[in-house]
Write a structure and sequence with these properties.
Strand order of the largest sheet: 1-2-10-7-8-9
CATH topology of the largest domain: Rossmann fold
Radius of gyration: 18 Å
Order of helices and strands: HEHEHEHEHEHEHEHEHHEHHEH
Shape: globular
Structural class: alpha/beta
Number of domains: 2
CATH architecture of the largest domain: 3-Layer(aba) Sandwich
């Protein structure tokens, strides 16, 4: 499957019965801080509280129903696949790193998902799941290195342009690149003048560093509030080429900036987001400050997820006080 405008539009029709078209909310406070007309794409309020359900469903729907499924995830993709399996009446296993957040593990347990634990890094977990796929014959559904998954994530681009018409900047949190790869592929096909900015935690900037180096790098990462974007990238990941081709610029942000963005979103919009979503807002603020973007441009930030426990969120907020 090629990742094209047509494939992404087909994915939108395929998954429409199973997902929500999430709110796009204006943010006057962020507009004042950046000089931009800012809108927030609330994927933190999506089913399973993450954009990941889009790609997971697009992949699962296209697999033969009798084939079992296996996947690897830091949590949100696992929740999405678990939802898809339950909704479509399929069987499967979610492989998680041993470092998965307790809140995400509890959510998977509540959904009745079959879980296996392996490794402390997303690349290790993905490698193990792929090996199990080959050993058992189960279909492996990657969190990002799968064209059907990327096309599902790209449906966010359809909703952005459909609701806003013109978007000059889109700020996207980046881990493995499935979200930004799909969204950027669609936006550049329909409105190539839109600038797509990849936002990463400074403690795990693997995709940014890889694009700058011209090859996928195996880099150590440090613990970060943005656990949903942390870790390495599979060798030969299809998202690497998409990022090289379609992403216009990159910005890495520190932990305090992520925490401050999470707190600010709660104060201004009464929405609780996980660290990866904070990265998008922090990235936009840093980008606007450093690049001095022209005032009056229209910007969208994808708030990619809201899976965070109450105690964790409160502790993060306290860091900024």
């Amino acid at each position: 499957m090629e990742i094209t405008r047509e494939a992404i539009e087909a994915a939108a029709g395929r998954i429409r019965p199973y997902i929500w078209e999430t709110l796009i909310e204006p943010s006057p406070a962020l507009g004042r801080a950046t000089g931009l007309d800012v809108f927030l794409k609330m994927e933190c309020l999506q089913i399973t509280r993450s954009f990941k359900v889009r790609g997971a469903l697009n992949a699962l729907i296209q697999l033969p129903p009798e084939v079992p499924v296996i996947t690897a995830s830091t949590g949100n993709h696992g929740l999405a696949v678990a939802y898809g399996l339950a909704t479509l009446g399929r069987q499967g296993t979610i492989v998680l790193p041993e470092t998965v957040s307790p809140q995400k593990r509890a959510a998977l347990d509540a959904m009745g998902a079959r879980i296996a634990l392996y490794g402390t890094d997303s690349v290790e977990t993905e490698r193990f799941a792929r090996e199990e796929s080959r050993r058992t014959g189960a279909a492996y559904v990657s969190p990002y290195n799968d064209a059907a998954v990327v096309c599902g994530q790209g449906t966010i681009g359809i909703e952005l342009l459909g609701r806003l018409g013109r978007v000059d900047y889109v700020f996207v949190p980046v881990g493995g690149g499935g979200l930004i790869g799909g969204v950027a592929a669609y936006l550049k096909a329909v409105r190539p003048e839109t600038r797509v900015i990849g936002c990463l935690p400074a403690y795990s900037p693997v995709m940014m560093a890889s694009v700058e180096a011209g090859r996928i790098l195996d880099l150590p990462t440090q613990p970060t509030l943005s656990d949903g974007t942390a870790g390495g990238i599979e060798a030969e990941a299809i998202t690497f080429g998409l990022c090289q081709r379609f992403v216009d610029d990159w910005v890495a942000v520190d932990e305090l900036a992520i925490a401050s963005a999470m707190k600010g979103l709660f104060e201004e919009h009464r929405v609780v987001v996980e660290g990866a979503a904070g990265v998008g807002v922090a990235g936009m603020l840093a980008y606007a400050e450093a690049r001095r973007v022209p005032a009056g441009g229209r910007a969208a930030v994808i708030l990619c997820g809201g899976n965070i426990g109450a105690s964790s969120f409160l502790e993060i907020v306290r860091r900024t006080m």
